[in-house]
Amino acid sequence: MSINKIVKLFGIKYPIIQAGMIWCSGWELASAVSNSGALGIIGSGSMYPEVLKKHIRKCKKATNNPFAVNLPLLYPNAKEHIETIIKEGVPIVFTSAGNPNTWTKELKSHNIKVVHVVSSVKFALKAESCGVDAVVAEGFEAGGHNGREETTTLCLIPDVANKVNIPLIAAGGIVDGKSMLAAMLLGADAVQMGTRFVACKESSAHENFKKMVVEAKEGDTKLTLKELTPVRLLNNEFYQELVDLYKQHPTKDILMNKLGRGRAKLGMFEGDLINGELEIGQASSQLNNIFSASEIIEQVLNEFSSYKNQINNDKKFIF
Amino acid sequence: MSINKIVKLFGIKYPIIQAGMIWCSGWELASAVSNSGALGIIGSGSMYPEVLKKHIRKCKKATNNPFAVNLPLLYPNAKEHIETIIKEGVPIVFTSAGNPNTWTKELKSHNIKVVHVVSSVKFALKAESCGVDAVVAEGFEAGGHNGREETTTLCLIPDVANKVNIPLIAAGGIVDGKSMLAAMLLGADAVQMGTRFVACKESSAHENFKKMVVEAKEGDTKLTLKELTPVRLLNNEFYQELVDLYKQHPTKDILMNKLGRGRAKLGMFEGDLINGELEIGQASSQLNNIFSASEIIEQVLNEFSSYKNQINNDKKFIF
């Protein structure tokens, strides 16, 4: 019997979590991941309340294992989402982008496990003080929305592990068994992978976007729009338009206007690689193929075991 | 007998390298590190040719073990430094900030081992094609001058390890035995630590600066001056002046003028924490004390062994 804190907390088999991501992680991906023994998460940030309800119901039909919903707390429909989550009996909620004080007690009063996503030691301590069950600490290399401190996973995980007492999930730059083992060595109890599950058969990302993700090379993602919310994107024509715009010292309003509405959907869900906002992590450079969720979990676990053995057997570690 | 490639290449005992750093790593630090079985490096980027000659001679007197000189290739006195290095019989040179094609052949023709510092896969491949013996791949979290790709150590090391055939040294965010083990898991043969050795008794950094380094918290360093050469600094009054200046959309010339000359010396060597440029890595947040070089090496090795054991024994890794 494992005493891994995250395995115990969620009642899952492996300490691997699929990040809740806009336009990529609906019930198909979440249930496939949960059916493989990891934790699947429905990303509600791109769903209207009615859509979220459907995804939760379909997910419950597709798996008997625990799954979660990710909720960006600043999302305009957050209150309705919370009501849906409680009503539909979702067992675990990952909150992000907002104040964990607002909803944690309410969710926990309904026996829902609450995990908050943070990008710094300060926010990890704040989340802990609000009573969350665990934190995800996400480094600078992560895709999509990102912290202002720009602390990398390698530096953030040991620092958060030293400061908080609740279980810790590492995110940002983790795509395989060796990065999972490294993150756990640094102090994490489990890992959350986003980018890896974008390039997954069950992901609802557009095929064009998945293809661009597995073709990405080192240096192909950039953190931008720091004056709004920092976001890591693939370097495409839209990103280059931002680079040009920045040369004119745009105001926040001009940036918001340029970004417009629906640009992430356009790129990630509808496959417009030119005009879309393509949110992905730095570790996309390490991906070469699109696999199913069960294949990804199996590969990660096999790599994890083989790297554990390598530490004992590879003579490069002996001196 | 270890078959670790870096241990063999340099003829040292442990695959640990002390980064060559301006104003911090003179002969006292380099020889102390080399005497402890790791590789000490004299940072020549802040030395006039006559000063470098003295440091090399003192280092040779202070240790019988291999040591190296770090040379930023864009340094105005680079040619004279190269001549000094050859004449004084320095066995290993770490080059950085410049084209590895310029001097590698000349150095190698004198039986000098050449290692080049890179921040991307592209530059690693370029360095390999120029015939260097190894590369240091340095991530975004590193202190001082930094790459433009902003790739973190966690993402950079696996990518470079997959692409180059020569030995690989990881740098950026590595301060202890667990980050060393993580970096080697990710594909490195050895690690280079800068920040950790700034806060070292034998470092020639000013005591004020050392004290500020060990008191730094997560989020206290920033990458700035990207229009010149990106550099990671402690957030002090000078950094805040830069933040204010950036609000006025400064030209490159205005930034260069603001930076002026000698500001790194002022801060790091002379201890002016207000007006100085204080170059340090993100992992400074994890340091709490100033130790001697031999104590640091011993601690890192002990932690390295204990984390190797932890992977076999801690039940969090079993599921």
Summarize the structure.
Chain A has 319 residues and is of the alpha/beta class. The first copy, chain A, has helices at residues 5-10, 27-35, 49-62, 78-87, 104-109, 121-129, 153-163, 177-185, 195-198, 207-215, 237-246, 252-259, 263-269, 293-313; strands spanning 16-18, 40-43, 67-72, 92-96, 113-118, 134-138, 144-145, 168-171, 190-193, 221-224, 231-234.
Describe the structure.
The structure is a homodimer of 319-residue chains. Chain A is an alpha/beta fold and 319 residues long. The first copy, chain A, has two domains: 5-205 and 289-314, Aldolase class I (TIM Barrel, Alpha-Beta Barrel), CATH 3.20.20; 207-283, no CATH class. The first copy, chain A, is 42% helix and 15% strand. Chain A has 14 helices and eleven strands. In chain A, the strands form two sheets. Chain A has an eight-stranded parallel beta sheet with strand order 1-9-8-6-5-4-3-2. In chain A, strands 7-11-10 form a three-stranded antiparallel beta sheet, with no helix packed on it. In chain A, helix 2 (27-35) runs parallel beside helix 3 and helix 3 (49-62) runs parallel beside helix 4 (78-87). The longest helix of chain A is centred in the C-terminal third of the chain and has 21 residues, at 293-313. The first copy, chain A, is globular. Chain A starts with a helix and ends in a 6-residue tail after the last helix. The relative contact order of chain A is 0.13. The model of chain A has no long low-confidence stretch (mean pLDDT 97). The interface between A and B is large, with 59 and 59 residues.
